[in-house]
Every structure is written in structure tokens, then in C-alpha cells.
């Protein structure tokens, strides 16, 4: 019995367990899987997803699924499995924004709501579901980069850091190279410094909401049964009719405030304006399902349009208050974070500066140690040089003493040289006087020689006349006194001997003796003139030698003085140069005077 009860209880439990099915929900940044009960309605699954995401502004969103060649939104009031959902397991739904706000800054309260709208609008722009100009695409891309990477840091965000990010539509990216687009985006990105992620996403949405195709759902319609193709656009402001080739500028618009009623009958759709005078606008769709979808979007957008014109509910007011407090708190936190970041950056800069200073000090210490070693080596070298200089100073002092003695000796020598010079000049004057006397004597001798020649000639004439007269007297035998003849007297004065016999009074004059006497006189005259000329030449040589001796004496005195000054300068400023060699001493003046005496 106990076993039967246990089996029955187990079977009862199995019967009580509800049937479930798997659901996969894809959001813009995550994928989630749920196990749903079979009896769940669309609202149950939608609320579960909103609670999981943390979303409270649920009226903008819905769960979309694919039906054949179109899409549909999960209806909240019907069971999930009773709708035309795919029969796959798990059943895939996309959690997307179904309705778009007119002004994102005023209507989007929660940060998660802003983030989901940002991701969806960004994807629509990149997929070219929303047309965007190249300039606006670059600006929007810069805000997307700011939301993802934070503030621009040139040390971290090197060229090429955006290579893996999809930021621009394909239609725009082909116009320039990736490097050129990155440069443009980075230039805008650098100007967004200090903007938080939620602020950057809000700025992105504020720019995107001004685009012509933002928040519009397009459907293919025909205005009549003849298949005149048109496009119907449904957005937060009303209904718009477009040409098939232009989704930017509508041909006709029906604001929600001007629409009185919207209805459909199978494939026919009717728009009744609030002004009854205006014509009713009718159009046709290809499928009944499309009409249902259009009607569903029209009802939802119209409800939100009317809701915006009313006072916010308590729930919305609380959400806005909480969002305001949250923004204020986050702003304070961001300020604190920015201040801490600034302090950290300053601390890092200070650390880097201290490290740089430390490295600099280490380098300076190393250089100082090297300089100290060099200084020690230099000190040792200077000590050696000082010792050498001291020895050289002693040597120079000794040389200075020798130089002083040499200077005194030179002074004494100079005094002696002056005395000898004076004596030499005196002897030179005496020699000149002697030369003058010799010249005068030579001239006097020349005159005497001329007189002698004249006397000799007269004597020859007198001798000839005497001979003539003697011959005449001899012939007449008259006695004559020898002393009365002028020729005999002249011969006696010249020192020649003549024979005279007092008894016979005969005079014997020979022509050979007269010639010999004349030749001797001429020879003496020539020798005297030669000696006089030789003496004059010696006097000239003596003058030349005296002048050269004077010049050598002056040069010797100057060289001695220069050598003395150099020795004194070496003694005053010792150096390592070799001492000057002593000038060669000139010959003594005594030798010169001895030579003069010999020549004189």
C-alpha cells in the first residue's frame, strides 16, 4: 500500500508540472533564453524580458518575430503559442523599439532606454535603413566612439584604433579611404572630451531624430486597384504617403491631430480626416496581415501622441524624479571621478617627473663620480706637476742667480769694453794723425824727389858745361879751383865721392856714376810711394775692422741683455721650455788693439 501511494504521489507531481517551451530573445547587445509556460500570453513573456533587462519604459518596445516574408509584433493579450510565431525551438524574438519618441531628450527617462534606442538607431543608420549624409555620419560616428572609448587620449588612441569598428554606412565609406575617414572622425572625437557615455548617446539620438527617415515604418501600398504603387510611412507624428523612389519627402501627410478614424476591411485601408469636408483617403495592401500590422502601429503611435499631450502619470513622474536624482548623483560621481582622475593623472605626471628627476639625478651622480675620479687623477697629476714645477723653480732660481752673475759680469765687461773702445778710438785717431803725417811726408818726399830730379838735371847740364870748360882749360893749362864749380859742390851734397888732385886739378867724372845715382833716387821714390799706398790700404782696413768690431760689440751687448731678460722672465714665470743657450763670446778687444799696434 505504501508503495502504491508513493507511485501515485509521483504520478501526481508529474501531472502538476506545467508544460513549457523554449524562447530565445535577442536584444541589441545581448541574447537571453527563457523557459515559458504554454499558457503564457505575450504580456507575460514581454514583462519577463523587461524585468530581466531592467526596463521600466516598456511602452516603446515590443517583441518582434518573422512571418514568411514580413514581420509581426507579439500581441500582449493573446497566448504566445496561439499567435503565428515560428515553430522552431527555441522560438526566436527580437526585443526592439516599436514606437519612437518625438523628442528623445524629454521622453526617454531611463539610461537603459536611451542605450537601447542608441544601439537600434545606430544599426539602422549603418544598415542604411535611415538615410544619413556623410557629414552627419562622421559626427554621429564621433559620438559613438566617445560613448565606447571615453575621452580621447593621443597616447593610447593611436592611428588605426578604429579599424575594427563599424561606424559609417557602406554607401559613405566608399567615398574615401578608411584612414581619411578615421582622421575626420578622430578630429571630431577629440572635441567631445569630458562627455559621459549616456550624454554621448543622448547627443547621438538628438542628431539622429532630425533625420528624415528616423522612426518611420514603411509599407508598400496601392492607391487603387489598378496598382498605383505608393509607400505608406507610419511614425510618431502621423501617416505619410511617399513615392516609391523617394522616402525622404512625403507627397502627402496626415498628422494624428487631423485623423478622426482609421479602419480596414480585408485589404482596403481607410483614413477619415477630422475635417468632414476633406475626402476620405483609401489605399490597398497586398496582404491582410500587413493591414493588421499597419493598424497596430497606428493605434500605438496615436495613443503615445495623445499621451504626450496629457499630464504625466504618477509612475512616469516618479521615474523622471528618480532619473533626475540618478543623473544628479551620476554627475556628482562623474565630477568626483573626474577630479580623482585628474589627481591620478597629476600624481602620475608627478611620478613620471620624479622618475625622470631620479634618472637625471642618477645620471648626475654617475657623472659626478666620474668627474671625482677624473679630479683625483688630475690632482695626482697636478701634484706631480707641482713637484716638477718646484724642482724647475729651484733650477730657474739657480739659473737666475747665474744670470745675475752673468749680468754683473757683462756690466763689468761693458765698462771695460767702453774703456777699450775709448782707447781704441784714441789710437785710431793717433793712427789717422800718423797716416796724415805720413801722407804729408810722402808728399814732401815727392816734392824733394822732384827737386832732386831738377837738381840732377841741372847737375848734368853743369857737368856737361864743366866738362866742356875743363877741356877748354886743360887745353890752355890754366889752374882752376875745384871748389868753384857748381857741379862739384852738388856732388858733394848728394854724397858721391869725386877724385880731385890738388896738384893736377884733374876732375874725372863718369857717366855711369850719374846714371846709378839717378836710378837709386828713382827706386827710393817708388818704394816710398808703394809703402805710402800700402799704409793707406792698411788704414782703410783698420777702419773697416773697427766699425765691424763696434757692430759686433753692440750685437753682443743686446744679445746678452735679451738673454738676461729671458732668464729673469723664466725665474718670474717658470715653464717647461729649455733654457737659452749662452751666446758665443766675441774676441777680446785686446787682440784687436794688438793687431792694430802690429799693423801700425
Structure description:
- The protein contains 13 helices and twelve strands.
- It is α+β, with helices and mostly antiparallel strands.
- The strands form three sheets. The chain has a five-stranded mixed beta sheet, sandwiched between helices. Strands 6-7-8-9 form a four-stranded antiparallel beta sheet, with helices on one face.
- α5 packs across α7, α5 (134-149) packs antiparallel against α8 (197-208) and α10 runs antiparallel to α12.
- The longest helix has 163 residues, at 314-476.
Secondary structure layout plus pairing:
Elements: H1 2-16, E1 20-26, E2 31-37, H2 42-53, E3 61-67, E4 70-73, E5 91-97, H3 104-107, H4 111-126, H5 134-149, H6 170-173, H7 178-189, H8 197-208, E6 217-222, E7 229-234, E8 238-242, E9 252-255, E10 259-265, E11 268-273, E12 281-284, H9 288-308, H10 314-476, H11 486-493, H12 511-572, H13 589-599
Parallel strand pairs: 1-5
Antiparallel strand pairs: 1-2, 3-4, 3-5, 6-7, 7-8, 8-9, 10-11, 11-12
Provide a count of the helices: 13
Q: What summary fits the major beta sheet? A: 5 strands, mixed
Uncertain segments: 1-15, 477-510, 574-587
Shape: rod-shaped
Order of helices and strands: HEEHEEEHHHHHHEEEEEEEHHHHH
Portion of residues within helices:
55-70%
Q: Between the first and last Cα atoms, what is the distance in angstroms?
A: 185 Å
- Overall pLDDT level: 80
Based on secondary structure, the structural category is: alpha+beta
Radius of gyration computed on alpha carbons: 75 Å
Sheet-strand content, in percent, reads 5-15%
Number of extended strands:
12
Question: Strand arrangement, largest sheet?
Answer: 2-1-5-3-4
Keywords: Cell membrane, Coiled coil, Membrane
Organism: Gadus morhua
Binding site for a 1,2-diacyl-sn-glycero-3-phospho-(1D-myo-inositol): 75-78, 292
GO molecular function: actin binding
Amino acid at each position: 500500500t505504501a508503495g502504491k501511494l508513493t507511485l501515485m504521489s509521483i504520478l501526481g507531481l508529474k501531472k502538476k508540472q506545467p508544460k513549457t517551451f523554449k524562447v530565445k530573445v535577442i536584444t541589441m547587445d545581448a541574447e537571453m533564453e527563457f523557459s515559458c509556460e504554454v499558457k503564457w500570453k505575450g504580456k507575460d513573456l514581454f514583462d519577463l524580458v523587461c524585468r530581466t533587462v531592467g526596463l521600466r519604459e516598456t511602452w516603446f518596445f515590443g517583441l518582434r518575430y518573422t512571418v514568411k516574408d514580413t514581420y509581426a509584433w507579439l500581441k500582449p493579450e493573446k497566448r504566445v503559442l496561439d499567435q503565428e510565431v515560428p515553430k522552431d525551438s527555441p522560438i526566436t524574438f527580437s526585443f526592439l523599439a516599436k514606437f519612437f519618441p518625438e523628442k528623445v531628450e524629454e521622453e526617454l527617462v531611463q539610461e537603459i532606454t536611451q542605450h537601447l534606442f542608441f544601439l537600434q538607431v545606430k544599426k539602422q543608420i549603418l544598415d542604411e535603413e535611415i538615410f544619413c549624409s556623410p557629414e552627419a555620419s562622421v559626427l554621429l560616428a564621433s559620438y559613438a566612439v566617445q560613448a565606447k572609448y571615453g575621452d580621447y587620449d593621443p597616447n593610447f588612441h593611436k592611428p588605426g584604433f578604429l579599424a575594427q569598428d563599424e561606424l559609417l554606412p557602406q554607401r559613405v565609406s566608399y567615398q574615401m579611404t578608411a584612414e581619411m575617414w578615421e582622421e575626420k572622425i578622430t578630429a571630431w572625437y577629440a572635441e567631445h572630451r569630458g562627455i559621459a557615455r549616456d550624454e554621448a548617446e543622448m547627443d547621438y539620438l538628438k542628431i539622429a531624430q532630425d533625420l528624415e527617415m528616423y522612426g518611420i515604418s514603411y509599407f508598400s501600398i496601392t492607391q487603387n486597384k489598378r496598382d498605383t504603387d505608393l509607400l505608406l510611412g507610419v511614425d510618431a507624428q502621423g501617416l505619410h504617403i511617399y513615392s516609391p523612389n523617394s522616402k525622404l519627402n512625403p507627397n502627402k501627410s496626415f498628422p494624428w491631430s487631423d485623423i478622426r478614424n482609421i479602419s480596414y476591411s480585408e485589404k482596403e485601408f481607410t483614413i477619415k480626416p477630422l475635417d468632414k469636408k476633406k475626402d476620405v483617403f483609401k489605399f490597398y495592401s497586398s496582404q491582410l496581415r500587413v493591414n493588421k500590422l499597419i493598424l497596430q502601429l497606428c493605434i500605438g503611435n496615436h495613443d503615445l501622441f495623445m499621451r504626450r499631450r496629457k499630464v504625466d502619470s504618477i509612475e512616469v513622474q516618479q521615474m523622471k524624479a528618480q532619473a533626475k536624482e540618478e543623473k544628479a548623483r551620476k554627475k556628482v560621481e562623474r565630477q568626483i571621478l573626474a577630479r580623482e582622475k585628474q589627481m591620478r593623472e597629476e600624481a602620475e605626471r608627478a611620478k613620471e617627473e620624479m622618475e625622470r628627476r631620479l634618472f637625471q639625478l642618477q645620471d648626475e651622480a654617475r657623472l659626478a663620480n666620474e668627474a671625482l675620479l677624473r679630479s683625483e687623477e688630475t690632482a695626482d697629476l697636478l701634484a706631480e706637476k707641482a713637484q716638477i714645477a718646484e724642482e724647475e723653480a729651484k733650477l730657474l732660481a739657480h739659473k737666475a742667480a747665474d744670470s745675475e752673475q752673468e749680468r754683473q759680469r757683462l756690466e763689468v765687461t761693458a765698462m771695460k769694453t767702453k774703456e777699450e773702445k775709448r782707447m781704441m778710438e784714441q789710437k785710431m785717431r793717433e793712427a789717422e794723425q800718423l797716416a796724415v803725417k805720413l801722407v804729408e811726408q810722402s808728399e814732401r818726399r815727392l816734392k824733394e824727389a822732384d827737386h832732386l830730379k831738377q837738381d840732377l838735371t841741372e847737375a848734368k847740364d853743369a857737368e856737361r858745361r864743366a866738362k866742356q870748360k875743363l877741356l877748354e882749360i886743360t887745353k890752355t893749362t890754366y889752374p882752376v879751383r875745384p871748389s868753384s864749380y857748381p857741379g862739384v859742390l852738388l856732388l858733394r851734397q848728394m854724397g858721391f865721392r869725386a877724385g880731385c888732385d890738388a896738384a893736377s886739378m884733374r876732375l874725372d867724372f863718369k857717366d855711369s856714376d850719374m846714371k846709378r845715382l839717378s836710378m837709386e833716387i828713382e827706386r827710393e821714390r817708388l818704394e816710398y810711394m808703394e809703402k805710402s799706398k800700402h799704409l793707406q790700404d792698411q788704414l782703410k782696413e783698420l777702419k773697416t775692422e773697427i766699425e765691424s768690431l763696434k757692430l759686433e760689440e753692440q750685437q753682443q751687448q743686446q744679445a746678452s741683455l735679451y738673454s738676461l731678460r729671458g732668464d729673469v722672465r723664466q725665474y718670474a714665470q717658470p715653464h717647461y721650455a729649455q733654457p737659452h743657450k749662452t751666446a758665443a763670446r766675441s774676441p777680446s778687444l785686446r787682440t784687436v788693439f794688438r793687431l792694430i799696434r802690429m799693423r801700425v
